[in-house]
Amino acid sequence: MTQPLLSAQGLSHSYGSQLAVDNVSFEIARGEVLGFLGPNGAGKSTTMKMLSGNLAPAQGEIIINGYDLIDNPKQAKAHIGYLPEQPPLYKELSVQEFLNFCAQINQIPRSKIKAAVANAIDRCGLTAVNRRLIGNLSKGYQQRVGIAQAIIHSPAVVILDEPTSGLDPIQIREIRHLIREIANEHSVILSTHILPEVQTLCDRVQIINQGQLRFNDTLESLSLQMHSASILIELLAPPAINVIQQLHGVTSVSSLSKTQFRLHYQPDNNPTDILLNMAVSQQWQLQQLTPEQHSLEDIFMKIIQHEQQPDGQAA
Q1: What are the residues facing 188 on neighbouring strands?
Q2: SS3 30
Q3: Domain with CATH 3.40.50.300 in the chain
Q4: In 3D, which of 203, 224, 204, 226 has the Cα closest to residue 215?
């Protein structure tokens, strides 16, 4: 198998007696966009800080493109590009001046700085504004500059924290397109609160809550969970609810009214055919049978809700 560009194993971190991140492990491969989701206080920001080298884990290991971030921080950080939620911009500089500075602090050889800056400007669509002061640019263009500084040294892993926060719909679309372009050459970890953004951009999704990973799988797997695992039915002459409960495949039944019921079942054991046959043979007078679909928000809430406690963990 291809070596992952980032491997995090057993990451943990506490703030005093409060455990913010608890034994988190995952990997990301080249060309992959990983969506990192979690409610406020779930441990998401703490994890991002550890991955970017801004916070040392109390326990665990982070390998970036073959380099241990704890044992060889300089070599490992050279392969990380990071855009925090608030881009670290010097607004009194022009775009070109700022990116020249970023190239220097990333120790790009002097002979290659001009080409690196030109490449970042071109990839991030900044050619028309490269001589303008950053402080005079729109928020969308400032976000592009932030992404440009994150990729100027061609890192293996690019970490983006809320990259479309505060942008208008046109700017969001442009930044999303740019992120997909970046993913062709790098691995991207995308932290976001915008659930449709995950569906648009990500290959894989992980959900953290109370410091622990609750879900870590492909977008296809998440989409399967969004398909119906429950059915709404209406029977004008319904049997006792325990009769419906005993149908093969049904895991539970909720009574919504005297004639309406919600049937829950395992996704690979749909009881629809059995239900139709029984409704006809037993004269239950079936009036409605509607498979339910669940949004990404429904799945997200289902994963985290039963874990939620009144006292949230540190972000």
Answers
A1: 33, 158
A2: coil
A3: 6-224
A4: 204
Look at residue 166 in the predicted model and tell me its pLDDT.
81
Question: Within 10 Å of residue 221's Cβ, how many Cβ atoms?
Answer: 12
- Name the helix (H) or strand (E) containing 13: strand 6-15
Residues 38-62: tens digit of each pLDDT: 888 889 889 999 999 999 999 999 9
Q: Is 287 helix (H, G, I), strand (E, B) or coil?
A: strand
Question: What's domain 6-224's superfamily in CATH?
Answer: P-loop containing nucleotide triphosphate hydrolases (3.40.50.300)
Supply 295's token pair: 């949004």
Would you state the CATH architecture of domain 229-292? 2-Layer Sandwich (3.30)
Maximum Cα–Cα distance across the chain: 83
Q: Is the pLDDT confidence value at 251 over 50?
A: yes
* Kind plus residue range of the DSSP H or E element containing 6: strand 6-15
